[in-house]
What we know:
By secondary structure, the chain is an all-alpha fold. It is built from three helices and no strands. Helix 1 (about 10-20) crosses helix 2.
Amino acid sequence: xxxxxxxxDRGHSVLSQLSSEAKLPMIQVLDAALESYRRLRFxxxxxxxxxxxxxxxVASAEHDAELAAFDGTLNDGLDGLKP
Length: 83
């Protein structure tokens, strides 16, 4: 459902330029930009969570132990199978 939002003159100018360059409607460029920003925020939040994990010695050790438990699954003998 379309909605009306306010955008700065500079933002509109950038959006218009990107739209012209990509030969896409402004709404598609804006949707793509928002999706890129959403993904960036997800990765930033993931990095923050990982940094918090690593800053806690107990949690970090538990995480390392869990990863070590999965190391054995890499040698499951399935390397030679073709899909």
